[in-house]
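Notes from hallway chat w/ T.B., transcribed later so I don't forget. T.B. wanted the structure written out for a chain they're using in a teaching module, and asked if we could keep both sequence and structure tokens in one place. Agreed to drop them here.
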Amino acid sequence: MFCTMRFENHLTTLFLFVFIRFLLTVFLVSVLPGAASLTLHGEKGGNITLECGLSTIEDSSVLLKHGSITAYGLQPDNQYMGRVHKSGLCDLVLQDLKTTDAGRYRLYIYEREHLMSDISLEIHINDTLTGREGEELVFGDLPRDAESVHHQTDTGWTEVWKRGKGVLSDCLTDNDGHLIIRDFRSSDAGEYRVLNKTGGILITLTVKESGTESKGNLNSTNDDSVDTEQQRK
């Protein structure tokens, strides 16, 4: 009888240990999502795969949330309609990436209606635009989590837009979340970064001046011609 009681006590202790560990895991994943966040990079107009990380799962269902918006699942938001598709067991593919897709997501994977995994993801969008001297250049729409926009200049990074204050530069105008350079100059070229409240990068935008690349290609062509002519001699 004594041995039976010790065995039962051991089982009770083991059960409590497993139960507490389970609660701690749920707490860390659900309450502290930043601790398990994964950053994914994609090009505007391209595709990106959100991996569930599970290799064996049966009768699975997936829910993807972008903040309070449903990106995949029952009744997805119109902006994601037809752009998110399930791949394999529980991976999701987000197609035709837009600048508004940048930000934090939560990926929920269920097996027979039981939550198996809860993953926090950060999507970072890269984009490239080309501006012509004196013409208008329209940036992509700002994502919902955008807090500020910074432009890299010769003197460092300069804040050119901030939520609640609007544009902070004479070069830009803000048309309901659409940033526009109405009179493009070479000084407007360079790298722009859209940041969230914590300073995390949502979008990296590279702005190039039209004609710069063609001049480089022309120089390369001329150099090749000179080399060919010297070889002939």
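Follow-up for T.B.: Residues 37 and 68 are 17 Å apart (CA to CA). Might be a good example for the class.
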